[in-house]
TrEMBL record:
Molecular function terms from GO: dTMP kinase activity
Organism classification: Bacteria, Bacillati, Bacillota, Bacilli, Bacillales
Ion transport listed as a keyword: no
Reactions catalysed according to its record: dTMP + ATP = dTDP + ADP
Gene field: tmk
EC number from the UniProt entry: 2.7.4.9
The protein, known as: Thymidylate kinase
Pfam families in UniProt: Thymidylate_kin
Transferase among keywords: yes
Binding-site residues, ATP: 10-17
Amino acid sequence: MTGYFITFEGPEGAGKTTILGLLEKELRGKGFDVLSTREPGGIAISEQIRSVILDKKNTMMDGRTEALLYAAARRQHLVEKVIPALKQGKVVLCDRFIDSSLAYQGHARGLGIEEVLSINEFAIAGVMPTLTLLFKISPEKGMERIYKNEDREVNRLDLEAIDFHHKVYEGYMLLADRFKKRIQVVDAERPLNEVFSEVTELIESMLAK
Ligand SMILES: Nc1ncnc2c1ncn2[C@@H]1O[C@H](COP(=O)(O)OP(=O)(O)OP(=O)(O)O)[C@@H](O)[C@H]1O
Ligand SMILES: Cc1cn([C@H]2C[C@H](O)[C@@H](COP(=O)(O)O)O2)c(=O)[nH]c1=O
């Protein structure tokens, strides 16, 4: 596959979606063929799975069911949208991917990073990101940003206790340490222009290789 697969990761409210939108515009301006998408979702089947997972009414959902639903949404999204775009040489910008499952379900939910990695290896069949940007922010700061944003709907995962969000953060830090070559940590607590300028530098250096 000839394209670039760039994933955006981090706790709630880290600024992933905002930076992804800015980067898309910047790269398009430079003539790159860009596809922006998100997980869970991005295509009809995966958006339907997203509604089930994030529905606040589904309080009885078992952790393993949750992990399997994310992996199923991921598989369909990869096959229908991401892989064809990579084959066409596009730059694919994806809001969350496998590391979200490892941090949220593997570490925070307590299912185990290895176990969740193993079901995801089946789902992705070797398609891994070229680069992952991990937006580092404290759970308190991230949740504060989310609750300030009146346009964003609060979902079932947002409603988890703050301890869960601390575990998500901890999970991401473990992943950054384990996958040093792929994951670039970006301090997301800084003003937006500073975060964006670091991201553009990282992307430019990746595209120049
Ligand atoms: N660097 C920043 N400084 C201050 N506010 C920011 C910054 N980046 C994003 N925001 C604001 O924080 C809120 C959350 O941003 P955004 O939706 O991009 O985060 P996210 O990581 O995609 O969140 P989630 O994964 O929970 O959907 C938005 O209101 C956005 O305008
Ligand atoms: C892909 C993926 C996501 N999650 C969680 C993370 C968030 O709480 C929601 C998605 O909401 P967003 O506003 O689009 O960020 O789902 C997860 O727990 N596991 C995953 O694999």
